[in-house]
Amino acid sequence: MSLCAADLAATAGTIPESPAPVHVHVRDCPVTCLRPLLSPVAYGLLRSECAYICGDQEPSIEHVVRLYEKGQLATVRYIGPVRLAEIRTCLTNAGLYTE
After folding, report:
1. What's the CA gap between 59 and 75, in Å, rounded?
2. What is the 3-state secondary structure (H, E, C) of 33-57?
3. Is the CB of residue 25 less than 8 Å from the CB of residue 4?
4. How confident is residue 1, by pLDDT bands cut at 50, 70 and 90?
5. pTM of whole model > 0.70?
6. Count of alpha carbons within 13 angstroms of residue 97, beta-carbon side
7. Is 23 helix (H, G, I), strand (E, B) or coil?
8. Which of 23, 32, 44, 99 has the fewest CB atoms within 10 Å, measured from its CB?
């Protein structure tokens, strides 16, 4: 299980032996929850694309999953096969996408 960015900020400076709260990623989470799970470049491209599509609405992981399932992430500029595989692996490892 992974911590989301908000959980990481909240637990900064805690004693390593103490259990940190665990955040289970769900499709309703904001895209920002994927930030610690992706490379900075992949995250930035993904966030920009979701923000462009969603407009004023806060993009969620659900938007990312739908873009991936429809094959639309492959058409985003600078998201090539390597970044696409990274995003797919991230979604799969977080339990958000199954092949």
Report:
1. 18
2. HHHHHCCHHHHHHHHHHHHHHHCCC
3. yes
4. very low
5. yes
6. 19
7. strand
8. 99
Write out the two tokens for 14: 């805690």
The identity of residue 18, as a single letter, is: S
Chain position carrying tokens 């938007």: 63
DSSP letter at 74 equals G
Length of the chain: 99
Place of tokens 């930035």: 44
List the Cα angle 63/68/70 in 5-degree steps. 95
For the chain, give the mean pLDDT: 84
> Residue 65: how many CB atoms within 10 A of its CB?
16
